[in-house]
Specification:
Blueprint lengths: L6 H12 L11 H4 L12 E4 L14 E7 L11 E8 L7 H6 L4 H7 L1 H10 L3 E7 L6 H15 L10 H7 L3
Antiparallel strand pairs: 1-4, 2-3, 2-4
Helix pairs in contact: 4-5
Length: 175
């Protein structure tokens, strides 16, 4: 027997639809944020909105690092942003930032293989930005991979679970 919706059930659904589905747990560690011994120096970050039409602005001939960030520039708000995920283009190949980031436009593949990222894109698309920093060809694939691990350890993005240096990854399992 199914109970009819009541005032309490309606309230719970309204709260979930209005705010609850956007809840996000983050870890902000002053110690990891202040880490400053990265394997490479001098990244130049740029950003685009997460929108198919914007992807043509991504470098088609450069490897690099990218981050999904929740941010909405607004003259009334102080600078802010929440890094959800950090990844690299060119880990085991010469795939460009554009080619790698276009993978995130394939909804079926995302839902099947990257559930967290699929949820983030589906939930926050209108305020989701893709930050990217191209690297020189002199940066090795192993240094790029190490940089990804170091940045993930520094920021601890909620959807970066695999590519974090071992000691920090072990500690995050407590949560």
């Amino acid at each position: 027997m199914t109970l009819p919706p009541d005032e309490l059930t309606d309230f719970v659904q309204k709260v979930h639809d209005t705010l609850g589905k956007f809840r996000l747990s983050v870890i902000v560690s002053p110690k990891t944020l202040r880490f400053n011994s990265y394997c490479i120096t001098g990244l130049v970050w740029r950003s685009i909105r997460f929108d198919r039409s914007e992807f043509k602005k991504l470098p088609k001939d450069k490897r690099g690092i990218y981050a999904f960030v929740l941010v909405e520039p607004n003259a009334m708000l102080p600078p802010h942003g929440y890094v959800l995920y950090i990844g690299i283009a060119g880990k085991d190949s010469d795939r460009s930032l554009r080619d790698r980031c276009r993978d995130y436009l394939n909804s079926k593949r995302l839902v099947k293989k990257r559930e967290g990222i699929a949820f983030a894109i589906g939930n926050w698309r209108e305020v989701l930005h893709l930050y990217y920093a191209p690297v020189d060809d002199t940066v090795s694939a192993s240094d790029l991979k190490l940089l990804e691990e170091q940045l993930n350890a520094a920021l601890l993005p909620p959807y970066s679970r695999a590519d974090i240096e071992a000691q920090t990854k072990k500690l995050t399992k407590a949560f």
